[in-house]
Design a protein that fits this description.
single chain, alpha/beta, 7-stranded parallel beta sheet, two-stranded parallel sheet, 13 helices, 15% strand, globular
């Protein structure tokens, strides 16, 4: 199958391109930027299969899909982050919402067999229990999304995709992912400097953040979920179209530091025991994601423990830096 990965020059996108190729699909990427050397080492095919364009340029995206005979789209192009969304709300909505409209229009008009959107735990407004479940409320009549315009845009993008599924027969599925880590990652989420500095023999210091917690999910687990979604039978009307994809377990930054030190003996890491105001605000919406529905619908479950994932990240980073010498 010819599959287009939007945001395919990024961290998760590059890994998805590589995973699709390894599974026998023909993968293409659509992005506004070129891949970093690290991402290119993950997916060398990006050198010839990257198409440059804005995700909200529906006409150009349509032309690309026609030219490359695209049969399915994995939509990962998005602007990310709480603070950046506060600085540029309009830019976030233009990219994340109109970008979703663009891929849905293309999927509808070209009658693509699949549209898989990479969503985020930021779409959640509040949980109803110990774990975040897809049916938890994404909206409040009194309070904004805790992740500001980023979370609001991801919430709206899911709703747009479901509307195209219900009214335009698009086989749409959104995968809510969280705290993805692994080789070539860009957003540090504490784990990147810990691992890479340890490999390079450098120290890592965080003044705050020890109690900060995340549901750290290995990038290869996310790629496996995407593959299963692409290859799954068409979802019948009324099917659940939002699935959590995560490790399903919370770790604090202090715990991550301990794991890195265990996996990479001699790692010099110190993490403060307090939280910054931003970390304290983010902590309120940090909970593990319930992945039972993904197991039911996709027969998928996370495979990588955090110890194993950090080891794989470190090994791959070591191999990469050897290529630079």
């Amino acid at each position: 199958m010819n599959v287009l990965v939007t945001g395919g020059a990024g961290f998760l996108g590059g890994h998805m391109v590589a995973a699709l190729e390894a599974a026998g699909h023909r993968a293409f990427a659509y992005d506004i930027a070129k891949p970093t050397p690290e991402v290119l080492s993950v997916a060398p095919v990006l050198a010839s299969r990257l198409r440059i364009g804005r995700i909200d340029d529906c006409n150009h995206l349509m032309d690309v899909c026609r030219s490359d005979g695209i049969e399915a789209i994995v939509h990962g192009a998005a602007r990310l982050g709480f603070e950046p969304s506060l600085a540029d709300p309009m830019g976030f909505y233009q990219t994340n919402i109109m970008g979703q409209v663009s891929v849905c229009e293309v999927a509808q008009k070209l009658e693509l067999c699949k549209l898989i959107a990479i969503s985020s735990n930021a779409a959640y407004h509040a949980g109803s229990g110990d774990k975040l479940v897809e049916s938890d409320s994404p909206f409040s009549a009194t309070r904004a999304n805790p992740a500001a315009h980023y979370g609001t845009s991801k919430m709206a993008a899911e709703a747009i995709g479901i509307a195209y599924a219900d009214f335009h027969d698009v086989d749409f599925l959104a995968l809510r992912v969280t705290a993805i880590y692994g080789f070539a990652m860009r957003s540090p989420i504490h784990i990147k400097p810990m691992v890479e500095n340890a490999v390079l023999g450098r120290s890592t210091r965080f003044k705050t953040g020890g109690p900060m917690k995340r549901d750290y999910t290995h990038v290869l687990d996310c790629c496996e979920a995407v593959l299963r979604a692409i290859e799954a039978p068409r979802q019948p009307p009324g099917s659940q179209r939002v699935l959590n994809v995560a490790a399903g377990r919370i770790h604090t930054v202090a715990e991550v530091a301990g794991i890195v030190q265990r996996v990479l003996p001699g790692a010099d890491i110190q993490v403060g025991t307090e939280l910054s105001p931003l970390e304290a605000a983010n902590l309120k919406m940090r909970a593990p994601l319930d992945v039972a529905k993904a197991k039911e619908v996709l027969d998928w479950a996370p495979r990588w423990t955090l110890d194993e994932g950090i080891q794989e990240y470190a090994d791959r980073f070591k191999r990469y830096i050897r290529t630079l010498s």
